[in-house]
Amino acid sequence: xxxxxxxxxxxxxxxxxxxxxxxxxxxxxxxxxxxxxxxxxxxxxxxxxxxxxxxxxxxxxxxxxxxxxxxxxxxxxxxxxxxxxxxxxxxxxxxxxxxxxxxxxxxxxxxxxxxxxxxxxxxxxxxxxxxxxxxxxxxxxxxxxxxxxxxxxxxxxxxxxxxxxxxxxxxxxxxxxxxxxxxxxxxxxxxxxxxxxxxxxxxxxxxxxxxxxxxxxxxxxxxxxxxxxxxxxxxxxxxxxxxxxxxxxxxxxxxxxxxxxxxxxxxxxxxxxxxxxxxxxxxxxxxxxxxxxxxxxxxxxxxxxxxxxxxxxxxxxxxxxxxxxxxxxxxxxxxxxxxxxxxxxxxxxxxxxxxxxxxxxxxxxxxxxxxxxxxxxxxxxxxxxxxxxxxxxxxxxxxxxxxxxxxxxxxxxxxxxxxxxxxxxxxxx
Length: 429
Known about the structure:
Layout: E1 7-13, H1 16-26, E2 31-38, E3 48-49, H2 57-66, E4 71-74, H3 77-82, H4 84-90, E5 95-96, H5 104-107, H6 109-118, E6 126-130, H7 134-143, E7 149-153, E8 162-165, H8 168-180, H9 182-185, E9 190-195, E10 200-209, E11 213-221, E12 224-226, E13 230-233, E14 238-241, H10 248-268, E15 274-284, E16 287-294, H11 301-305, H12 313-321, E17 336-344, E18 368-371, E19 374-377, E20 380-383, E21 387-395, H13 398-409, E22 417-418
Parallel strand pairs: 1-2, 1-4, 2-3, 4-5
Antiparallel strand pairs: 6-9, 7-8, 7-9, 10-11, 10-15, 11-14, 12-13, 14-17, 15-16, 17-21, 17-22, 18-21, 19-20
């Protein structure tokens, strides 16, 4: 038993990431009760769902005070970027997550790029354009001679504000979308155009208390909707962990050249970073380079990474909050994990919801099914989002984990079910 007293925790969010976090906390000897706001039908099986508008900070504080919550963990990026951590800490409530100023690493692509260049963190060359100067961005693209190029909305865009453009026509079309689509317009008030990086993409999860940082795991996610890594970007169609082409020496290099300089740089700038730091990296011929930062657990990587974690997540959060992460080492099991996302036909564009989901009772006992976009209708679990479920299995090898995951995913059915069948393959960018 841990030296800590058991705690009551609140998980903010309603997707597969939050289901995975709540599941692991539910299994912790250090946790008494798990509350999830607002949660989903999956989290209701392992904790207590609380109806709450998570963008109403006063309402969140009321939930914490009503249930005497000892620690809050924030899943989605928007409340972090909007300053929920700062608000709750001022009320005396412990929170796992970065402050509003620290969360700019995710909330503003231009801020993150400027930060990396100031602190010599390897990343792609870039240029920014304000909304009034977009004619200059268009002129730059028309004159450009090297392709592909990457266009990024500066602000949060639910994973849909990044365009990898293979030629001028595609870049100008993407520029028009960023400028005209209501869902992207606000996030694109500042535009980042950056150098395309060749290589293999990976994700790194690290935990920090503002001074000390530890890498939890490597993962690889699959953002495109189509097999062969084609089509529109999504919130993520699957993930694997650990990444076979990332060994201990590579992790040490990433810790030394990216994670530690990021944490030290944020501290030096007066905005210490506490919480979970997600580094999206490209393994280039010149070494690992940062593609993006996220200021929270990634989705769907979390669904594969957390089941592998042997160190108690509650203990990690408490030590991060008290700046004592130097007292612990992170351990994992020796299994490989695969997560496959079952999505609604038409995602990430238009899709129908309310489709009954069958077969959840048919999966094996060692299979994890995390709810991403589900609801209850007359006692029946139905689809309620673009990404519906995440199916996770482990194996002694990655191939075994992948094979098991697809076998289990096939047991679950709903009208319009769609999923990629190439999760685990390696794609060069």
